[in-house]
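Technical note accompanying the year-one report. For the benefit of new consortium partners, we illustrate the data format agreed upon in the data management plan: each record pairs a sequence with a structure-token string. No post-processing was applied to the example shown here.
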Amino acid sequence: MTGFLRRHWLLLLLLAGGITLRVLTWLAYQPALLYIDTFRYLDNLEALRPTDLNPLGYTVVLKGLLSLGGFGFVAAVQHVVGVLIALALYSLTRRYTSRTWLAAIVAAPVLLDAYQLQIEENVMSEVWFQALLVGALWVLLSRGEPRWWRVALAGVLVAAAVLTRTIGITVVLPMALYLVLAGGAWRSRAGWKRIGVRTLAGALGFLIPLVAYAAYFNSQAGRWGLTGAQGNVLYGRTAAIADCSELPTGDAGLLIFCPPEPLDERLSIDYYTHFRYGDPNWPYVPLPDDRTKEELADEFAWTVIRNQPVDFVTAILHDFSKNFAPVKTTAPNDVPVERWQFQTIYPYHDIGAESVQIYNATTLAYDGVLPSVNVELAAFLRDYQLGGGYTWGPVLALAGVLGLLGALGVGKARRSGLRAAAFLATGSGLIVLLGSAAFEFSWRYQLPALVLLPLGGALGLAAMFGLAKRDPGSGGRRPKMADYPDEVDDGAVADFRARYGEAPLTPLVVVIAAYNEAKGIGPVLRNMPTHCGDLSVSTLVVVDGATDNTAEVAEDNGAYVCVAPRNRGQGGALRLGYHLAAEYGAKYIVTTDADGQYDNAEMPMLVKPLLDGSADFVTGSRRLGTGQYDSRVRWLGVRVFAVLASILTMRKITDTSFGFRAMTAELATAVTLREPQYQSSELLLGVMARGARVLEVPMTMHLRNNGQSKKGRSLKYGANYARVMTGTWLREYVLRGGKRRAAAPRPVRTATDARETA
């Protein structure tokens, strides 16, 4: 418990503040805050008309919540959802970086931003829209490379976001690009096949719900659509900038739709959208032809866009830039910022005649109380909000820049494994803001950026400065690998082939997995034998998504270098090395570590049993030879796991985790290897289960020549090592029958046994 508090103290502090502020907000405004949109939702609870201004997503949610309680219950649930969003963002960030402070920064805007608190108290769709966006990102980013079923689920969540707020449709573009970029699969033909599969799954997950909803819309309206707002989406924006002299003079219908106010005296977009176009009696003159009001509005908007493209784009970019202003103010003709600020009196918005009576009757019907304000609490919240209790616009801009730089591969980002994730979060945040600005600017429309841009900025920062976890997106325990080749394998092999062509390696290849070993790998390579017996030795270094210059150091010291675009663990790197070496002509494969723990001069003794045909797999043993240990726990672990392996296989084993091994390339590529990290026992038990001739020989093991072990804490490592060993035994010996029953059981021989037999 103490360790948990020490690691997550900053989040817990922010969480306490966020929960306290939410309780104060809920108590300050009873039963909840009702906005203009609230009454649109309420008016459609029973009929569920798809043709209304707002799509039905939030209406359905609200109907379900109101069946359980009143507006006070709805606001309470929305505050809980806000807290859960923050926790989800914190957890998602932690899957990519071990820096808890960075994850806490991502959660802070949602927890503490007063505009977020105010919108959660409103009976409106915003917090649910945020939750669906975060849910889609979680599904795509939380567990390594997205499988097809996860992409399909993300598509469903984005479709639900669209049906909650139609601006969610903009997220489809960054999501589609992410599916291409994730894992570097675009580097190979096989990778493009997987891209096609997951893109198809995502498209189906997205389109099936929307097509079904559009069919329902068609059954009610006689045309296909998602919302009744289609006619006025662009009308308000273009009416505010339209130069009526540019309209076709012979088209009386379009001229009717041009505002009568002079161009420099135009009213707000909100006015033209909701009050002029939204007036069911407008236009107040008969339409001159068979075109409907909606058709004329659309034609007017597109005519203005064609005639004034620069004005149109400039207006949108100007409104988009407002999101990053340091202070939230109301620009001329914008939606007043006061609508999203805490007030010390209950805010009755203008919803027509007798607005106050409508508010009172509504809250009485659902909660049995009149709208009320606790003035002291409201004053405190207002002072907090106006005194700086919100996310500063330049901070969001900085987050967007960091996310884009990380996605572009600046600094250490190129090999971080975070570029695609940073792009998805940042691109989604920016495109939602841009799409909203195309309609109109409102500080309310900035709120989705609170859950997207900080996440993208944190991922970009972690990518550029090497703060990523070794296995980004794993969330701690690394997920098992898919069959070879996966997306990472495809990208690495394609890159290797592009640099080295088809030139074969020698029949004996030393495979080294290296992650951030630039300081230690040079001496290992310089001391590598050039021959073992009559065979020349090639060295293949698989750089496992390193963030330092391991690849350059290895290449400078004469090694062939294969660069995996994402860190997966030693098991993934070695498996890639086995297959790549075999593909390039290797007959025998030796593995050693990049940290100088093994004596390269002992390689001829390791390889000899393979060359003379007396063994298929030869592994060193520090217990038969000499071993140095960095802790007593590790000394004990070597012996305990040797006993466990001997019991499981019924064959004597002295050392299960010695990394200096030699095997035939055919055997190395035939064994099932799924473990990215605790792979030594998986390989050993796997070859034994195939009935291979296994030999242990005495070898020397030194302490690392630099740095610290990447195996983590001894007890945690031991627990996971035991899990992998028993899991491999169950898979190979129980489920698959062990040894394929093709050969009689053979004991694991030691070098002494081999000499006595001779």
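Partners are asked to follow this layout when depositing records. The longest strand covers residues 617-627.
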